[in-house]
């Protein structure tokens, strides 16, 4: 398995678990319907654990363009590989969202709440305020990437920083903590691929009552995480 395939499959698994738990909580007639935020954040954390465990030894299990860019800014990952990794992550996220739709298709068809449907595929603010929403994504991703530097054992000038199988649980717990503590404002995308790939899929899938894909908001969960990751890398370099 090449690093490209590892990132694609790892991100696919992340989204399959993450979007899947959103389906179970939000869509009509599921056994987990309305089971709440705690269930959602645990589902996403387990998705991170599985994705990192599968891809870690091969690609380093970035599974997130913000992580890839942050590591590159810090000199812990080669810039030449950044576009390849980001492409794999976005494709993997889109594939994971498509598989989630196939799995829950009868429940998508039975759901008339367009916001609940969109919430499976993408994030949205609890209170709409562009600057504050942007800052939420910056801060959440800053915490994620800054901690990843130390969990992964990254150091300035390394060619590759790996999260690896042994680090799957700490990263999952980190994402769990971000969701519990910081996720209530925007749904904590903290990952451009997590939002962009599935939002594209939402645009084209034939889902009854799905409504619009809210592309006006889509820049925030893409740009915010990149800024947060870059700031984390800057602080890592400064402290190093």
Question: What best-fitting shape do the alpha-carbon axes yield?
Answer: globular
The CATH class label is Mainly Alpha
Instruction: Report how far apart the termini are.
Output: 33 Å
Q: Please give the share of residues in helix.
A: 55-70%
Q: In terms of per-residue confidence, which ranges show pLDDT below 50 for 5 or more consecutive residues? A: 156-161
SSE order, as H and E? HHHHHHHHHH
CATH architecture: Up-down Bundle
Query: Quick check: average pLDDT?
Result: 94
Largest sheet: none
Query: What proportion strand?
Result: under 5%
CATH-level-4 superfamily name: Glycerol uptake facilitator protein
Estimated radius of gyration? 17 Å
Overall strand count: 0
* SS-based class: mainly alpha
Task: Please give the count of helices.
Answer: 10
- Provide the number of structural domains: 1
CATH topology: Glycerol uptake facilitator protein
């Amino acid at each position: 398995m090449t690093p490209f395939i590892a990132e694609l499959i790892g991100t696919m698994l992340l989204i399959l678990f993450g979007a899947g738990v959103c389906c179970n909580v939000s869509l009509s007639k599921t056994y987990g319907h309305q089971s709440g935020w705690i269930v959602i954040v645990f589902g996403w954390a387990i998705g991170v654990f599985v994705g990192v465990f599968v891809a870690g030894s091969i690609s380093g299990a970035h599974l997130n363009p913000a992580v890839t860019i942050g590591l590159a800014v810090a000199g812990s990952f080669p810039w030449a590989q950044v576009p390849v990794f980001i492409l794999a992550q976005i494709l993997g996220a889109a594939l994971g969202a498509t598989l989630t739709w196939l799995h829950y298709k009868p429940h998508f068809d039975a759901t008339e709440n367009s916001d609940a449907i969109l919430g499976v595929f993408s994030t949205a603010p609890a209170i709409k305020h562009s600057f504050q929403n942007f800052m939420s994504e910056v801060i959440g991703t800053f915490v994620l990437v800054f901690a990843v530097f130390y969990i992964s054992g990254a150091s300035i000038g390394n060619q590759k920083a790996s999260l690896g199988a042994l680090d799957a649980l700490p990263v999952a717990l980190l994402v769990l903590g971000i969701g519990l503590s910081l996720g209530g404002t925007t749904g904590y995308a903290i990952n451009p691929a997590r939002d962009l790939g599935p939002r594209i899929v939402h645009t084209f899938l034939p889902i009854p009552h799905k409504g619009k894909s809210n592309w006006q908001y889509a820049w925030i969960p893409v740009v915010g995480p990149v800024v947060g990751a870059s700031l984390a890398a800057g602080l890592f370099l400064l402290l190093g």
